[in-house]
Amino acid sequence: MANQDDNLLKKVVAHAKEYGFVFQSSEIYDGIGAVYDYGQYGSELKNNIKTFWWKAMVQMHENIVGIDSAIFMHPTTWRASGHVDAFNDPLIDNKDSKKRYRADTLIEDHVAKIEGKINKEIAKAEKRFGDSFNKDQFVTTNGRIVQYRDQINSINDRMKSAIESDRLHDLKTLIEELVIACAVSGSKNWTDVRQFNLMFSTEIGSLAEGANTVYLRPETAQGIFVNFLNVQRTGRMKIPFGIAQIGKAFRNEIIARQFIFRMREFEQMEMQFFVKPGDEMEWYAHWKNKRIKWHKALGLGEDNYRFHDHLNLAHYANAACDIEFKFPMGFKELEGIHSRTDFDLKAHEEYSGKKLQFFDPQENKNYVPYVVETSIGLDRMFLAIMSSAYKEETLVDGSERTVLKIPAVLAPVKVAVLPLIKKDGLPEKAREIIDELKFNFNCQYDEKDAIGRRYRRQDAIGTPYCVTVDHDSLKDGQVTLRDRDTAEQERIPISELKARVAHLVSINTLLRTI
């Protein structure tokens, strides 16, 4: 089990508020649980993440296009998708602490503890045997690890069976047999497990008594599926092709915590890739590889990612995995990649009475395409970047700083222009420089306080480059360019500044690596 760093999460939450990244929604009215507003720097970071995803997904692929579907959809949409009947969480309460948990999450956390024991055994053996250690042989022959593996497989099989057959009593029995205790009270006094539907409903129409019930969409994917024919025909798309979308979704999460990791109003970046039936596993492998490369290109750390294959497949899937990221609270899902088969299009065919098929001229026949989905939570991506970027450092001169080492391509402010002092023509020269740079980059001008304090402010919001204008700048036409991560400085001609910064923060350079 990954080590949790609750202290880091608390620091990130505090920093995000203090520096204008994320605020509690409606804070002056004491807020609303699991709903957040993005501040001036948070909204910039979000937009930059969206741009990087959209360009990598849509602009770089001739056979992928983007749409923007409505949040409100015909209520039958959600019957066809299975959300009305099956979009539930199995919940259990601890009678002593009154805390509510997802039953399957309690069991998964218990399994993660057993995995942690396996990892400890492996680490001890590696230390003992050194270079001669054969990990594959050790995990298959060591009696203790084999026993742990058997425990995990047994627990997972029982949980999967109980969920698939909707035997909620069996989930409670499993929790009791595993002697799982409430993290708050330490008690094992549990209620029965029950299902809770996560969709928000509202009414549409001028009068409530004559209104129809509609739902706030719990996912963005269905907006793509119902527009399959519209996009295919108007775009003259040929199989295989994809439809991408960025949009808000809403889930009435009963257990919403861990800052912006799990919210009631959140944003998704999804792409549905339509393929010929029988080709889906090839494309599933393709998109697994493509998506992990996109993540790793940002340089947040190779060890911070891992794949997790689903044991309990959703009703629409024949293969599914998560790209998990090492958040402060351990490895958690960041992006899902699913082979959804033809479930969605066939369901919408059945409920709408309309054919949602593709005519394949090579096969000379119509068929309902299969779908491979990539779905990433924008807010979770935001948290992944913030938590990995947050650093507390002691510099060479002994001074301390808090810095956000956000990848330069995503940083809210790309460059800050700072006159050394507020007189002698330096502010005017600095304004002249920023007036030229602002056409290409999001810039900030700051002339208040000592230069060192201004550097610290820019470090705290993640600005990758600071440009300092001094008295020599008026004579030799050069400025000092400071690097956020290394704190190193170099003199550079003003005439070369725009090209240098453009190279350093270019999204195109990053796109070429994936």
Can you tell me about this structure?
With 514 residues, the protein is α+β, with helices and mostly antiparallel strands. The mean pLDDT is 92. Helix 2 crosses helix 13 (378-389). The protein contains 18 helices and 23 strands. It has three domains: 1-71 and 219-394, Bira Bifunctional Protein, Domain 2 (BirA Bifunctional Protein, domain 2, 2-Layer Sandwich), CATH 3.30.930.10; 88-197, Herpes Virus-1 (2-Layer Sandwich), CATH 3.30.40.230; 395-511, Anticodon-binding domain (Rossmann fold, 3-Layer(aba) Sandwich). The strands form seven sheets. A seven-stranded mixed β-sheet has the order 3-9-10-16-13-12-11. A five-stranded mixed β-sheet has the order 20-19-21-22-23, with helices on both faces.
Count the DSSP helices: 18
By CATH, the architecture of the largest domain is named 2-Layer Sandwich
Uncertain residue segments = none
CATH class of the largest domain: Alpha Beta
What is the overall shape? globular
Q: Which fold name fills CATH's third level, the topology of the largest domain?
A: BirA Bifunctional Protein, domain 2
Tell me the helix content.
Answer: 25-40%
**Helix-and-strand structural type:** alpha+beta
Full CATH superfamily name of the largest domain: Bira Bifunctional Protein, Domain 2
